[in-house]
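Re: that chain you flagged

S.,

Sorry for the slow reply, it's been a week of failed gels. I finally had a moment to sit down with the sequence you sent. For the record, here it is as I used it:
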Amino acid sequence: MKRRHFLAGLTAGGCALGFPLIRMAEARRAQTVMLLHTNDTHSRIDPYASGKYKGMGGIARRAALIAEIKRQHPATLVVDAGDLLQGTPYFNLFKGSVEFETMRRAGYDLCAIGNHDFDAGAERLLFLAKHHGKFPLITANILFSQPGAERLIQPYTIREVGGWKLGFFGLGVRFRGLVPASLHNGVKYIAPIPVARTIVKTLRETHRCDAVIALSHLGYTGFDKEPGDCDLAREVPGIDIIIGGHTHTFLEHPKGIRSTDGRLTRIYQVGHSGLYLGQIELSFAPHDSLQIRQQNVPIVAPTPQVKAPR
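Prediction finished late last night. Pasting the structure tokens below so you have them in one place:
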């Protein structure tokens, strides 16, 4: 049989059997996508040795849990909402290299930028992103003018996982009262809400993302009269999930807020110091219906057994 006749027959046969290419692609999609998240880990490499959180935390335990979840659920992404740095002698001694290196090895895919991530200066942050983290840092409202920064700091990024297209964008808190001017030379803050509206429209309409997720270091209720995650959810239509940081808020269950177009946005945050790993399970249903289950897994010894979110 000639090649063109063979291909024509194959195509016709496939359509007759009810398997056009788009249906075949849909069949290969994962039933669920897992999002694992932290925020404000603050250089907490080791578990707490004493005090209220004695025995909790530690990047090695978190990495083991992440690896086990990825083994059970290959369609998994790991993200952080900023403030990787500052808080223990690891930062004082190594200026962020330990934090970035261990998070890379733990399997993080994306991180937002927090105010304490500038504590060794903007140039040092870019160096860490390039040589140790090697995962994208995302922020749409903090603009870096340093040469080459655009390759390391992105306003948004799109990840295809399990056959689904997820759009992520980052937002950072205002520098005033938080970051000395000498530490953010060449970096400019702009108001987050207008930027977020533009980015969300791009992710929804241009890139046709199946879900839009904000990694926000604005704070749950904002800071110094600036907008926070609750304001973001209300004022920017089209965000499915906000994974927040900065205020060290522990949300046992997500806070649901309807935006101006009636769409429900869910806000998540898991405290600080890597005490918990947030686990969000996304299920994509027909007619743009997004089903979500979640749980916050405490990081304790031994590594906790993986269970499905409720």
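What I noticed first: Residues 1-27 have pLDDT under 50 and may be disordered.

Talk soon,
D.
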